[in-house]
Amino acid sequence: MKVLAAMSGGVDSSVAAARMVDAGHDVVGVHLALSSAPGTLRTGSRGCCSKEDAADARRVADVLGIPFYVWDFADRFKEDVIDDFVESYARGETPNPCVRCNERIKFSALAARALALGFDAVATGHYARLAQGRLRRAVDKDKDQSYVLAVLTAEQLRHAAFPVGDTAKPEIRAEAQRRGLSVAQKAESHDICFIPTGDTRAFLGARIGVRPGAVVDGGGTVLAEHDGVHGFTIGQRKGLGIAGPGPDGAPRYVTEIDAESGTVRVGSADDLDVVELRGERPVFTSGQPLRGPLECEVQVRAHGGLAPGVVEVVDGELRMRLHTPLRGVARGQTMVLYRPDADGDEVLASATIGATARP
What residues sit in the active site (predicted)? Predict the structure, then answer.
């Protein structure tokens, strides 16, 4: 099989490429250049896809004895990931840029080019598993990345490979060490790669500009003024610009964002509870729509816990009624549905949260 190995320059994608070589496939390594100005991407353990990561990936490819290329996806990344991120925050949403990058860059633009060039599959270092075409959680639950892959279609998964999903992270590092790969002890990447300073509010403000609005309490009393809803997210407690806790002495949190009026509403922790999720533009990873009502579990953050409930498809969207409330769910987040079974949780579907309902 002819395989394109997406090599970020980290230990996981390096071992994934090595395993595909060991399996006897015809492997070519590729690193994605995601910025026309590499200095605008984080370096070291703070991000991925930087110039130093490209150099690390090239060294690994040399050790493996495979061809290696750098493909320029900067324009596509800006349009489909960065611009989408900014526009989503301007609407008062809370997006996950890693989900969009996997959906629109690594398994759309990249895979499309790979297939056009005659490759059979794209291999990545994601921690997830494929079994009979079904996407499942990785063996290493702490590193599981099935959540950010749940936006992939059945056709995209048919041309994907996740060679490290059956192995725990410490074993991957040990394997890289045995193979003599220089990235064996390379630090993990964190945070948002295209925000070099780590200051998301400043990054958004520079692109969205000042859009004044008010911070109000549950009764509509104005507590403070702000420069734009992009500086807030549901569940936020700090940086609200208000004098202190509520009348009862309890902390106040962002409970609602209205981008059209510029209103940010705050309330108690209990005001953050939701019992229903509505997901737009659902993707069914098996290729078959759900037949409901169906008991399953939902995850709404990349490293969040699971919540049980009943889901069904109504008017083209996912509607899930939770058995127990979830706290601090925002529009724009991705909801991923799982079905627990003996072989490991299977991903059923994903959707972008468009609305929630409180108890």
Answer: 101 (nucleophile), 193 (cysteine persulfide intermediate)
